[in-house]
Amino acid sequence: MDAHPAEISDATPELDPDTFDLNAWIGGVTGTVRAVTLYQRSDLLAVIDGLQRELRLAELVADEDRGMNDASPDGIRQRIEETAREFEASGLVFKVEGRSDESRERIAKRLKKQNVTDAETVVLHQLADAVVEPKGITVDFLRRLQETSEPQLKMLLTAASLANFQPPKVDVNFSSGSSAGRRQRERS
Fold it and tell me: Which pLDDT score is estimated for 66?
């Protein structure tokens, strides 16, 4: 797959060929590591959804029509914020390091020698090998995650895929300077 010419730029700093140490530079190259946050309390999303519905209804009721037991919009907003904080607090960052084709193939061959040929099992072994933080991720852990929250397992798989196949780059579209350009595009 060829990269689009607009995606490739020469950002090489001016180097002094007499002092540049290519071996030191190569020795400092690291594997790509991607991070994804998984949440223990995904069930709280339903609580937040319910509170948001409750808030929409509460905002339709005038203060003078609100009963003694009816929650105020401000009270509901506070409960949404508290629940969102609880959800966020249940998050744990997982770091997935890219593995070479050869490394992933070694795992597949080792498993084949053990008569494990199921593609899903092979992928889970490769993923367990690639998760570098937190330590101790096993295939059993990944299977439990798949049973309880398959979308989060897919997030880990996506992070592994990005670490394995996407060239490292930083997307700086989050900068405040780019918001003016975004507003201009939105008006077009």
Answer: 59
- The rounded distance, in Å, linking the Cα atoms of 71 and 16 is 69
Gap between the Cα atoms of 73 and 54, Å rounded: 9
| 98-136 residue pLDDT tens | 999 999 999 999 999 999 989 999 999 999 999 999 999
Q: Which of 126, 136, 135 is nearest to 159 (CA)?
A: 126
Give the type of residue at 168: P
Helix, strand, coil abundance in the chain, percent, nearest 5:
60, 10, 35
Contact 96, 160 (CB under 8 A): yes
CB 141 within 8 A of CB 131: no
Kindly report the pTM of this predicted structure: 0.72
- What is the pLDDT, as a whole number, of residue 26? 80
CA count, 13 A, side-chain hemisphere, 68:
0
